[in-house]
Design brief:
The complex is a heterodimer of chains A (67) and B (317). With 67 residues, chain A is mainly β. Chain A has strands at residues 8-10, 16-19, 23-25, 31-33, 38-41. Helix content of chain A is 0%, strand content 25%. Chain B is mainly alpha-helical and 317 residues long. In chain B, α3 crosses α4 and α12 crosses α14. Chain B is 70% helix and 0% strand. Classes of the chains: A mainly beta (67), B mainly alpha (317).
Amino acid sequence: MTYEHPEAIVCPGGPLLIRGNHAVEDPDGVPHGTTRPVSAVCRCLKSGSLPWCDGTHKVLPKEQRPS
Amino acid sequence: MDLPTPRGPLTETLFSSLRSGDDFFAVLTTLVDAQPDDAALALWTLHQLHYRDLTAVPDDLEWDPQLLRVRARLERDLEQRLRSRFSAPAGLSFVADFFDWVAEHDGASIAAHVHRDATREQVLELTRMRSIYHLMESDPTAWVVPRLGVRAKAGLMELLFDEYGAGDPNRLHHRLYARGMEASGLDASYGAYIDEVPLEILEQNNAQSVFGLHRRLRGAALGHLAAFEATSSLPSSRMVQGLERLGFPQEFVDYYAEHVEADAVHEQLAVHVICGGLLAEDPQLEADLWFGAFTALDLEDRVARSVLARWRDEEAA
């Protein structure tokens, strides 16, 4: 059997995990290169370190978290 | 590492036996009435035999049957106490409901105090006490790797690879903490401040070693990991701001800044990939995942309450 090993994982209510090296644009269109084996891309757009997740989604009201 | 200062009859007997390499029977007789602080330091020291050199203690005592018997008694007592504080949440799925459950069980926060109110001396004291864990960060969890099935093992290695610097020794997390300590004028050799460490922090460390060293408790080890990672990103942001407010060196700020983004990744990996993978292979371990997660939050809450209460009393005096 082959195990699933997706390049991207959507975390309900939280970030998008991406594996490997990528350039991710912040909201101003500036590209940021990944620096770790797996990176968490912010989906709530409230992170203090965009484009990366910093856990801020956890303090948002549920209806403002990404689905 | 030098042996700590004994905290009672058990550690007095144990440490003199460790130096002489014999007379472990006397250690067993002092176990029964050992006070919590004495018992916790004894267990912490016995675990250290598995991690590093202890000055003047023969290396082969790591697997001495009498000492293992002492260790097993102390570990059994600790596990019983931890389990007696825990009740499994009913009707929740670990993977789907974990983050909401953590939000509901969040306890006292030292990071919130460091963010706005702590003095420089309090942060230095906290740094010395926390060094008992952060200078061996992730090491207890690394024991778990060979005990896992394919999915959880690959997932845990993906997380640990990042914890251990992804091949770059300068990015290894416990090395980042050592650099922060050194830049702040502290001694970063392991165990230098063990005599200052309170019972609650000894137990926090002992629980992680017990979970890591027992294959039976691999579910608890991974539940603990998930809760530990899930309560790190936001507090690390507060630590960054607190350390900047107090003018701590950049090297130390960098340690916590690294944990803001790293643990935002690790908490998701821990729940969805590692614990999800464990449950796919070993569904009966869900109760132990919750036990480990509860224990991580409960122990940190007890540490925070103890440290914050002492600082409040010192400020009032």
